[in-house]
Design brief:
By secondary structure, the protein is mainly β. The chain has 4 helices and 15 strands.
């Protein structure tokens, strides 16, 4: 699953590649963590939303705990009540430069980054919804991992080819679901010494 990604291209590049107007002064970081703002696009508009659908858990004594951002939606869960309405009515594109997965021994994990050859941002399939807690929020759709990263994690984001963007955004649910498939083309892999731990908390 993905809990860290980069969006290091500027607003002009996103506007050109995604044919979407980016709001002036859009505030999002170049490294996006769960619960923090990121940029999403749909049709000719880009918006800043919080990454992760909020879920309020209950403690052992019945008390409400701090909301947790659910950043990933598995493809095999899209038709369940938690995701169904967003999948059927509110799909979006998430511009991504790279995403990271933790690799290595427990408490010594480092960041391994994945991206596409060529260096341009790519679109990850997303869902969004309005919430009372955090305003508009989005999540990434996940499928089984490709061979290149299967040993690191068993799930990866749905990467959409440009010719499929309109179908993801506007197609019937069964058409959109057909696009939820594992990426088979080569990925660029950057194994780093950056510690996975120590991320900022939302």
């Amino acid at each position: 699953m993905c809990n860290l990604y980069r969006m290091r291209h500027n607003s002009a590049e996103i506007a050109r590649l995604f044919r979407a107007e980016v709001p002036s002064g859009a505030n999002y970081a170049d490294e996006v963590y769960p619960g923090y703002p990121g940029l999403v696009t749909a049709h000719d508009q880009a918006r800043v939303m919080h990454w992760g659908f909020p879920v309020v858990l209950t403690g052992r004594q019945g008390q409400k705990l701090k909301p947790k951002p659910v950043t990933n939606a598995r493809d095999d869960k899209l038709h369940t009540p938690f995701w169904r309405a967003s999948f059927e009515k509110r799909r979006c594109l998430i511009p991504v430069s790279q995403w990271a997965e933790p690799e290595g021994e427990a408490r010594r994990m480092t960041r391994t980054w994945y991206s596409l050859p060529g260096g341009e941002p790519f679109a990850v399939a997303g869902l969004w919804r309005p919430t009372d807690l955090w305003g508009k929020c989005y999540t990434m759709v996940m499928v089984p991992s490709c061979e290149q990263m299967a040993e690191v994690h068993d799930r990866m984001p749905v990467i959409l080819r440009p010719q499929d963007w309109d179908k993801w955004l506007d197609g019937a649910p069964h058409e959109a679901f057909e696009l939820c498939r594992t990426w088979r083309d080569p990925l660029l892999v950057d194994e780093t010494d950056e510690p996975w731990a120590g991320r900022a908390a939302p």
